[in-house]
Known about the structure:
Elements (H helix, E strand, L loop, with lengths): L1 H11 L8 H9 L4 E4 L8 H9 L3 E5 L3 H13 L4 E4 L5 H12 L5 E4 L7 H8 L3 E6 L22 H4 L4 E6 L4 H11 L5 E4 L7 E7 L3 H11 L4 E5 L3 H13 L4 E4 L5 H12 L5 E4 L12 E6 L6 H8 L9 E7 L3 H9 L7 H13 L4 H8 L23 H14 L6 H9 L4 H5 L16 H13 L3 E4 L4 E4 L1 H8 L13 H4 L15 H18 L9 H10 L4 H5 L6 H21 L17 H13 L4 H8 L3 H14 L11 H14 L4 H7 L6 H14 L2
Parallel strand pairs: 1-6, 1-7, 2-4, 2-5, 3-4, 5-6, 8-13, 9-11, 9-12, 10-11, 12-13
Antiparallel strand pairs: 14-15
Helix pairs in contact: 1-3, 2-3, 13-14, 14-19, 16-17, 16-20, 17-19, 22-23, 22-25, 25-28, 26-28, 27-28, 28-31, 29-30, 29-31, 30-31
Amino acid sequence: MQHLRHILQQFWGYDSFRPNQAEAMRCVLEGRDSVVVLPTGGGKSLCYQAPAMAMDGMAVVVSPLIALMKDQVDALDQCGIPAACINSTLMAHEKREIARSVRSGAIKLLYVAPERLVQERFLDFLRETPISFFAIDEAHCISMWGHDFRPEYRGLAHLKEEFPGASVHAYTATATPQVREDMAAQLGLDRPEVHVGSFVRPNLFYRVRQRGDILAQTLEVIRKHDGQSGVVYCIRRKDVEQLTADLNANGVRALAYHAGMGDDARRRSQEAFVRDEAEVIVATVAFGMGIDKPDVRYVVHTGMPKSLEHYQQESGRAGRDGLEADCVLFYGPGDFGLWKSIIGNDEAPGAAQALSAMYDFCTGMACRHRSLVEYFGQPLNSCSSCDVCAGEIEGVSDASDIAGEILGAIADTGQNFGGAYVANVLAGANEARIRERGHDRLPCHGALRSHDKQAVRSWIEQLAGQGYIERVGEYNVLQLTANGQALLRGDGDAPRLLAPDEAPRKSRSRAAGGAGWEGVDHALFDTLRELRRTLAAERGIPPYMVFGDASLRDMARVRPLTPDAFHHVRGVGDRKAAEYGDVFLRAITTHCEQHPDAPVETTAAPIKRSPRNDRRSQTFQLFRESRSIEEVCEATGRAPSTVNMYLNEYLVEDVVTDPSPWISPFLVEQIESAAAVAGTERLRDVFEHLDGEVPYDAIRIVVTCLRNRTA
């Protein structure tokens, strides 16, 4: 595992494993089949990406969406990892080029759609290639009991037969125990090890509210997170279109995303969002697995999802970087019936039960985190990250009396009516249909007339969510459960009822940013964030692929001023240190010079140190002896990318002005001529002036020496 630690540090800039990662990676290295369930943001992808770099051969990764494949490959490329994807959007010559790279052994991870793995021609191609293992991402799609069943995944069952020497590993962020068992069975896994991480996401703060003026409610969440990225989910396409228009009319940069849009329109919306060109994306559930953006700071649901699996995955799009994020769910009395009509009789087994569990989550008064993790078969002892446990929700003082009146009204009217009718009876409505049935003469008529009718409707929903009432039949007729009958007799436990108009008024905002902002120089963070945006735009990649928010906060907290200190920032691997180190260090140095009195976090964790310091000294001495890059690689056993990074640090530290020991005189002359025209401020300007034909590493060496001459 020490080799894997080195790989994590070298390519991703991490010096430790997250929970369950080491065990999951060991399965891959030892060739044992596995099922790995880690929540979104738990480092699931690393469980197969890191072992792929440590093993001979090529790993094949099955992914359901083209956009997700592309994001993964682009992110790996930024880390210096050779990966590729084959999909229907590629031209024939692009596919041929990837095939050549695969045959030459240059590719370590190949991403493909499940449909491609049932094509005999592609299977023949893979049979000619040394395969280290197969990784099935979003593996819950293979189970009819899962929330996102896809028939094309069933074709993956033949992998164990076609490639008996390669292990198969199933990865998902969302799976109940039943789905986990079904995944393993459908894939034909051989005595798989099962590793299930905790579903607790303490960085996510869950709130559930009844829906009112949904535009105003959504704007309140967005404005709390001004300038940050968020996702807003709607049930219906028309709601997506309307809310997107309303948000833009209120000055929010919002884009729509739903299945009724063309492929190009959806792709443009998604790309604009991941590149921070749009602040908010308003979407149906069609927007889910395709998003790999780690810095989503809030997720809003304007209606109830159809299952806790969907909610866990959709809300889990927030805070994938481990930093704080808000998940706010607004639900209405009609959501249950709407989903019930959509589901019909064609959904997967258990859909009706899943809908009921979701409804109970919305209307219940239990800890939100506990409700989620217990649904997935795990315990939870304590929580401080939801509206219930944070004390934002206060129950009405006379809950038992109110519940008794509601249950009594349902019984007295014969348990033959829906929630709206019962609420009208309790409110004392003088409607013809109530008079015709004689219900205006019942003792319950007008029993709750002192309360707002919307509050009565809400209490009916809450009692249903807590198991005292159930809906029956096509028209959702209310009937008492055994618990409801016991409560009506005076034998049951008293319920908790929330007054709908109280929760928003008593809502407490967490401290700005929480602990993730402790010791961070906010002005420097903003500067680095803008720098990240500029660099990403130049390279045509999403900003988070340069550095995530967690790395930027760490930089703004520690304020590294040397290449070695910068390399020890979390999330800074060898490739990114070499690619972006110069420009970020200049920005940090300039900021510190301009703000010498800015507070520095003295309690921050010390900069990570490792045996790298000894290797650094050894490498510097070899450079002082004018050894070539190839010679230093051989002498130290380090990769060229790492040696180039050390060389750049050496050039800066020793103020070297002559690049000739490492770059040929002809190339030095080319680069210096280009720099005279394009300047030395940005390596990319020099790179483009040379028509992209000279490697960045060579440009960096020469430009650093040029800067040292004028230092």
